[in-house]
Amino acid sequence: MTFEPGEIAEVVDLYASNPAYWRAAGEHDPEHIDAAKVEADLRAEAAAEGGEVLLGRDEEGRLVGIVCLLARHPVDGLPWIGLLMVSGNSRRTGLGRKLVALLEQRYRAEGRHGLRLAVLENNPDALAFWRSLGWHEIDRRTDTAHSRPCIVMHKPLA
């Protein structure tokens, strides 16, 4: 991600296409996604040691997904997916599955043995999505940033 104003505007539009997620997460007002807050949040993700923000585009160059990654969690040493979101118009098209498959392939190629993420307990659709891809629950705890109840999930890669 380059953090150019046009790119931030695209991410704001992508976020706005997922109001149910933002109602569950509580990080953004789903009726008014603030561009400055989006940029600040994504810059913080990218600035974290091992942090990375990736954008997914379709054949016409339109933004269809975003992924925030952490290369090595400070506690368990595994890579983590901090956020995977596809455009509301792209939900249930297989795009999310493709993005996850690419991430799993990337970390397998790096010799990583597993991948983790946390799903908000109040987001049953996301939980069902990850379970359908073979991820399993390993813990329940609150997230460190916002103290929300989460389900920690793991996918072995070896």
As a percent range, the share of helical residues equals 25-40%
Average pLDDT reading: 94
Total count of strands:
6
Q: Whole-number radius of gyration? A: 15 Å
Helix and strand run: HHHEEEHEHEE
- The number of distinct helices, counting runs of at least 4 residues, comes to 5
Q: Taking strands numbered 1, 2, ... along the chain, how are they ordered across the largest sheet?
A: 1-2-3-4-6-5
Largest sheet: 6 strands, mixed
Poorly predicted ranges: none
- Give the overall silhouette: globular
Distance between the termini: 29 Å
Estimate the strand proportion. Answer: 25-35%
- Given helix and strand content, the structural type is alpha+beta
Quickly list its features.
single chain, 158 residues, alpha+beta
Structural write-up:
The protein is an alpha+beta fold and 158 residues long. The protein contains five helices and six strands, in the order H-H-H-E-E-E-H-E-H-E-E. The chain has a six-stranded mixed sheet, sandwiched between helices. The longest helix is centred in the middle third of the chain and has 15 residues, at 95-109. The protein starts with a helix and ends with a strand.
